[in-house]
Specification:
With about 350 residues, the protein is an alpha/beta fold. The chain has helices at about 150-165, 180-185, 205-210, 225-235, 285-295, 315-325, 325-340; strands spanning about 50-55, 60-65, 70-75, 90-95, 105-110, 115-120, 130-135, 140-145, 170-175, 195, 215-220, 260, 270. The protein has a 6-stranded mixed sheet with strand order 10-9-8-11-13-12. The structure holds guanosine-5'-triphosphate and magnesium ion (MG).
Length: about 350
């Protein structure tokens, strides 16, 4: 077979030579006589596998399990992965030195399909997205009762992102030594959200265990709300924590990369850097309304025989507007709709 032949006989567009026969081609024998590069890559089905626990400037911490126990190794991305992103939480296939011994470096050659994907865009009109974490099972939305002041709009953003990503959200209010979280929490009374409250000098280990055991939980929240402080208490890690500026009320973006850490009482928690913006340009509104309703409309009762997962956005909106979720339901709905229409998405309430 000559190198210009259609390798797999499917006249594929990325094998353009398959459209031509010998007479169309000016043949220049390969002077070195060696085989040209082929696009056929090994599949690495038998390669060792691992789980990415952290990413730091092109180096990946990968947890590899073996009968002798787990070991954390360091890997880089193989060139053949090109621009494909590898993020904390990815299941990966490895080549090279996977011993994990001092100075060893493995290569990530393939990324397994992701079960969930938490993404954000730079802003709402931008659909270029950044993947934050893969394969998490739930999202811990961390907000401080004060310092920095909590804002409902930001929580709504995270809820929209969680609903879209298929992650179960849990609201975690920190710094309850500084303010009573009840007035803020009242805004979310319409949602069947799990809520935990915490303070650094009295971390609720038992409540946290119930939430985190057996799960891979990604934390999200503004800089300075106390994500790393909480993660350190739960895992025994010593991630740096930063102070909140007393004038601007803002954190200092102390954590700069995400890392998955094992919770002492069971489960994994992923500490992430606080971000300035959490754009939703990539979100599908249909996912959001359905997840909103399934967290809210009492026992997700079907109406007119239509199960909720088949209901149209506007039916869900109508039911919430008719007061099924009370006044805070309407408040949340209005906020979600404002977020979604801000992204240029259609508004089911105006159809
Ligand atoms: N009063 C009080 N302060 C807290 C509590 N939890 C955290 N802090 C303080 O809040 C500041 C910020 O905490 P961090 O854990 O660094 O916050 P972070 O969310 O990880 O911030 P980034 O890494 O910048 O995203 C630190 O000074 C903590 O000591 C709490 O429950 N009560
Ligand atoms: Mg931090």
């Amino acid at each position: 077979m000559s190198w210009w032949d259609d390798v797999d006989g499917d006249a594929d567009e990325d094998e353009p030579y398959g459209q031509y026969d010998e007479s169309s081609v000016r043949v220049r024998p390969n002077p070195k006589g060696n085989r040209p590069r082929t696009k056929v890559r090994p599949t690495y089905d038998d390669a060792p596998t691992g789980w990415v626990t952290n990413v730091d400037r092109g180096r990946f911490g990968v947890l590899v399990s073996s009968p002798d126990g787990d070991r954390l190794i360091t890997a880089t991305k193989a060139r053949e992965l090109g621009k494909k992103s590898v993020v904390t939480g990815d299941n990966v296939f490895l080549a090279g030195d996977v011993s994990g011994s001092e100075g060893s470096l493995a290569r990530i050659v393939r990324v397994a399909e992701r079960s969930t994907l938490l993404r954000r865009s730079a802003d709402d009109s931008d659909d270029v997205e950044r993947v934050i974490v893969a394969n998490a099972t739930q999202m811990l939305v961390v907000v401080a009762a004060a310092d920095p002041e909590p804002r409902t709009r930001l929580i709504d953003r995270y809820l929209v992102a969680a609903f879209d990503a298929g992650l179960d959200p849990i609201l975690c209010i920190t710094k309850t030594d500084l303010a009573d979280p009840a007035p803020f929490l009242a805004h979310f009374a319409c949602l069947d959200l799990r809520i935990v409250t915490s303070r650094a000098d009295d971390v609720p280990f038992e409540a946290m265990h119930e939430v985190l055991d057996g799960q891979v939980t990604v934390t999200v929240g503004h800089s300075g709300v106390g994500k790393s402080t909480l993660v350190n208490a739960l895992t025994g890690s010593t991630r740096a924590t930063g102070v909140v500026n007393s004038v601007t009320g803002r954190g200092r973006h102390t954590s700069s990369s995400s890392i998955a850490l094992q919770v002492r009482d069971g489960g994994w928690i992923i500490d992430t850097p606080g971000v300035r913006s959490f754009g939703l340009g990539h979100v599908d509104p249909a996912n959001v309304f359905r997840a909103f309703a399934s967290h809210a409309i009492p026992v997700a009762a079907p109406v007119d025989g239509i199960p909720l997962d088949q209901a149209h956005d506007w039916e869900i909106v109508d039911r919430v507007q008719a007061g099924e979720l009370g006044p805070t339901g309407i408040e949340r709905l209005d906020s979600f709709r404002a977020l979604l229409t801000g992204m240029g998405a259609h508004d089911p309430g105006t159809e």
